[in-house]
Specification:
- The protein is of the alpha/beta class and 236 residues long.
- The chain is built from nine helices and seven strands, in the order βαβαββαβαααβαααβ.
- It has one domain: Rossmann fold.
- Helix content is 42%, strand content 22%.
Length: 236
């Protein structure tokens, strides 16, 4: 499930990409397919870093590796272990909503980005997320859960105040919104709900096979039901 539109970043060979809060490495893996780039997947969760490493190895074994450098790093977004202006592109997808000290995290993202570089931030969209919170306290009270709901103007202004220029935005993953509503309705911790499990199978099939019909439906409903808000910035 790729949230970021890489073609909007104009990534060139020899440039460096940081995917902070990489999770299982979906964006790190996608970036590793690009020609001659250096990509670092960073996260605090050791098991996620192992998944990212396995994904990178799988991509290389499949012959889809772009030939650049790649690596993983244990890192805290509020205290990144990288020098100032280290990366040409920084991706932070579905992370900021988990971070209590959002201001410190934002400053770190800007600090490690080179002048002229691109920052991509994605967070849960306000209305779909608000409904999830209304349906289930367990959804946002879980350990490592969501600590806030972002409005587009608020998160955009936070990075603009740090000297970044907003380039654009879009919504993504409309097919996932009803899934999370349904999951919150029956209980996020349950794994025995037939409707939830069937919907999950549908989403897995969609991610793996990328059929035109579900891609078209997702694109059609993203402006209305898109689960994620994706924002693009440039450091000026």
């Amino acid at each position: 499930m790729i949230t970021v539109k890489f073609d909007r970043l104009n990534i060139q060979p020899k440039e460096k990409i940081l995917d902070i809060g990489c999770g299982s490495g979906r964006h790190t893996g996608e970036a590793s397919r690009l020609n001659g780039v250096t990509v670092i997947g960073a996260d605090m969760n050791f098991n996620d870093l192992i998944e990212t490493r396995n994904r990178l190895n799988f991509i290389k074994n499949c012959g889809e590796y772009g030939g650049g450098e790649r690596g993983i790093s244990a890192a805290d977004i509020t205290s990144l272990p990288f020098d100032n202006a280290s990366f040409d592109h920084v991706i932070c997808s579905e992370v900021m909503e988990h971070i209590p000290d959002e201001s410190k995290a934002a400053r770190e993202l800007v600090r490690v980005l080179k002048p002229g570089g691109n920052l991509v931030i994605s967070v849960p969209r306000f209305l779909p997320e608000k409904i999830c919170w209304m349906l289930s306290k367990e959804y946002y009270n879980a350990n490592g859960g969501h600590v806030r709901i972002y409005k587009k103007e608020k998160i955009a202004s936070m990075f603009e105040d740090l000297g970044l220029r907003k380039l654009g935005s879009h919504f993504a993953h409309s097919l996932h919104t009803p899934y999370w509503w349904l999951k919150c309705l029956v209980g996020p911790g349950r794994n025995d709900s037939l409707p939830v499990n069937l919907y999950h199978r549908l989403l897995t099939w969609d991610i793996m096979e990328k059929p035109k019909i579900t891609r078209s439906i997702d694109k059609l409903f993203n402006p209305i039901l898109g689960k994620s808000l994706v924002l693009y910035f440039k450091k000026v």
